[in-house]
C-alpha cells in the first residue's frame, strides 16, 4: 500500500517517548512536520508559543495530569479548526463514540499500525 504524503504540522502528545518516536518515524518520511510533547501542559505551551500552526493534535487518551480528552477540549476552545486524533491502548470511556467517528476527530487503537496511522492522519487532514 502506498502511503499518501502531506506537509502539515502534527503535534504528538504521549507520556511514552517510544510512542512519540514511533509516530515521528512513520510521519516524518511522509513529509509531515512533527512536534512532540510528553504532557498536555507541554503541548499547550508549544501551541501557545505560536511558532507553528498545529494542523492536527495526535494525543494519547490516558496520560498523567491532563488526559487527552481534556487536552482536545482546550485545543478546540483556543484553535477551533484543529483536527484531533486520539490514540489509546484502552477503549476509554473518556472518548465518546461520536468523537471517534466525527469529521474533526478520530481514534486509533494501540499498538499503532503504520499504514493505519498514516491513512487516518491523511483522512482527517483532507
Outline the structure in words.
The structure is a single chain. The chain is α/β, with parallel strands linked by helices. It has one domain: Response regulator (Rossmann fold, 3-Layer(aba) Sandwich), CATH 3.40.50. 38% of the residues lie in helices and 21% in strands. It has five helices and five strands; from the N terminus they run βαβαβαβαβα. Strands 2-1-3-4-5 form a five-stranded parallel β-sheet, with helices on both faces. Helix 2 packs parallel to helix 3. The longest helix is centred in the last third of the chain and has 12 residues. It starts with 8 loop residues before the first strand and ends with a helix. The model has no long low-confidence stretch (mean pLDDT 89).
Reported by name, the CATH topology is Rossmann fold
Uncertain spans: none
The rounded distance between the terminal residues' Cα atoms is 19 Å
Integer average pLDDT: 89
Write out the strand line-up for the largest beta sheet, numbering strands in chain order.
2-1-3-4-5
CATH class identity: Alpha Beta
Percent of residues in β-strands = 15-25%
Number of domains as seen in the coordinates = 1
Classify the secondary structure makeup into a structural class. alpha/beta
Q: Number of helix segments?
A: 5
CATH superfamily: Response regulator
What oligomeric state is this?
Answer: single chain
Helix content: 25-40%
Quick rundown:
The chain is 38% helix and 21% strand. With 126 residues, the protein is of the alpha/beta class.
